[in-house]
Predict the 3D structure of the following.
Amino acid sequence: MAWLVLLLSWLSFLLPWGWAGLLLGVALGLCGGVLAIATMFKGGVLLGLFQLLLSLLASPVVLLVGMVYFSGLIDDEQLDARDQHHYERQHEHDSTDTLIDVIDLFI
């Protein structure tokens, strides 16, 4: 059961849910750690210790990978929006200049 909770935790870190994914991932990671401790008390000391170590060491790594990946996506989207705005402003001026040139032809 701890494996499933840990995998769900890591998945929530990697999905673009913003703060909801972070909070869900942290909560599931803590639950996975508690379940790993419960596994140790049931007699699976080595398995529980391995799950606990993964919960403590792999979760921050997966979180950082997700943050780096999605910060790159956000930067690309912001750049695309900024380029689109610049393109629209440039063509807005072009159409105004063209209208002025047409009016000048008739005067």
About this structure: The helical segments are 2-14, 19-42, 45-106.
